[in-house]
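Chain X:
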Amino acid sequence: MKPKPIPRACERALAEALADVATELRLVNVIDLIGYVHGERTANIEDLIHSSAELYFKQGALRYACAAEADVKWEAPPRVSLGMEFRWRGATAFFRLQLDAASASIDIHHLALDTPSAPEDLPKRFASALADARLRPLRQ
């Protein structure tokens, strides 16, 4: 069975909701973050994500999914990819947050709602769950 494509509107909504969290995570010394990833220091990474998320999301909405990679090459700036989970009000998303010095990006691998709905309702319901999970409204 072929997985259903994730609507771009859902990835865009998640990226906008996580922009502040990504900014907080980029304040971490990249050498330390790469060391945690390569050393498989799951608890350290989990703590960094938790402390970055607690400023913007309600408790338990955003979690580290115990998967991370660091892409470190001589000819390019480092890039860190963190497996994460968003779960709130019946919406669940498993995704990767990719960070580099200047930007962040999101790649959703799985997105589901607890209660069935029409496919065209997915972006609206997911955006609603994201908005409800935030402690502060998004910056405009």
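Chain Y:
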Amino acid sequence: MLNIVINEPDVLFRQGLTYLLADFFAQKDRPEIRIDVHSSPAGILLADMLVLSLAPGECFTCFTPSLAGRKGVAIGLVDACPEWDALPSCFEDMLFIARRAPLMQMRLTLEKAWARRLLHDAYRRPSSCADCQYRGLTPQQVRVMQELHQGLSIADTAQRLGIAVKTVFSHKYAVMEKYRLRSDYELTLFLHRMAEKRSGFSAHSLIP
């Protein structure tokens, strides 16, 4: 039995992905698969394959211990595939699928993921937090992002923090550049996802 965890909030996309995985593994003579969409942290760590929905910029953040100790191969669902050499340790061996990718391209990524799973013992290396290059924020950037996430305007954020409006703009666009966010909408998605994490805007998650 092959255990697959899909962490994807979009029900229709998740259902389509479920059908794709079932068809893919049926052709690999592995018809018996178990797909879990409500897995516990322990289930994620023990999954043979993890399909993870990632918000814009999220793949550049710290995910330890959620992914560092995982057993299986991981696939990230993203809007745009990131550059491999800029990824943190937890994502170094992750494969990425763009949400708008053609079906054939998705199948090719699954082929790579399955090949890695077969070579898992030789391929998978433990993640090293000591050498991790995840991207963090300065304390001032964290404070600015907190205010913006609460819905404050640039001017209101500047007034509350006692800094210039130009300074707020500077921090905002520095964060967007750091996490390669292309619009205010992507910034909003990124901040919302960071707030959802257990550590939220704590020093552990965002400040190097």
